[in-house]
Amino acid sequence: MVCGGKGVGGLVYAPTILADVTPDMEIFREEVFGPVVGVTKVSSDDEAITLANQTQYGLAATLYCTDVSRAHRYARKLKAGTVGVNNYSEGEISTPFGGYKASGFSGRDNGIHAHEQYTELKTIWFDLTA
After folding, report:
1. Which of 47-51, 63-67, 90-94 is predicted with the least confidence, judged by mean pLDDT?
2. Which of 45, 85, 96, 115 could cross-link to 111 by cystine, CB 3.0-4.6 Å?
3. How far apart are CA 39 and CA 69, in angstroms?
4. Does the pLDDT at position 129 exceed 70?
5. Cα–Cα distance measured from residue 20 to residue 38, given in angstroms and rounded to the nearest whole number
6. CA-based torsion, 72, 78, 84, 89: positive or negative
7. Looking at the domain that runs over 7-116, which CATH code has it been given?
8. What burial letters (b/e) apply to 22-58, b meaning 16+ CB within 10 Å?
9. H or E element that contains 12
């Protein structure tokens, strides 16, 4: 633990940084909500994407990159419902928000896509000549 890890009241923790996290650790495999970051060393961008996509979750991901073309390429490869580049963002009301895999509820909040989870389509055919 580089810093943090102390409770500040109830189930709330101070911002926490964990170094040298490996894929076999629970903190690497589980979906963590809160100001917690685990740092894992990798040898290549491809290894980072592979490790990131091995999780059973996929609510959100963030990547930091100064090369816009490279950032687009890797953002497309990440299996997450929201990808922030050089920031963390949940978007805003007009953009869909929801997770992949075991994150979320397989639907989308916000935007036009949210309407689909509250509707059921039906087609009815009439023969008006009968």
Report:
1. 90-94
2. 96
3. 24
4. yes
5. 8
6. positive
7. 3.40.309.10
8. eeeeeebeeeeeeeebeebeeeeeeebbeebeebebb
9. strand 12-13
What's the DSSP call for residue 70?
Answer: H
pTM reported for the whole predicted model? 0.71
pLDDT per position as a tens digit, 9-62: 887 889 999 999 999 999 998 878 788 899 999 999 999 999 999 988 888 888
Q: Rounded to an integer, what distance in angstroms lies between the CA atom of residue 13 and that of residue 120?
A: 42
Per the DSSP assignment, residues forming a β-bridge with 8 are none
Burial of 61 (0-12, 13-18, 19+ CB in 10 A): buried
pLDDT digits (tens, 9 = 90+) for 1-10: 999 988 888 8
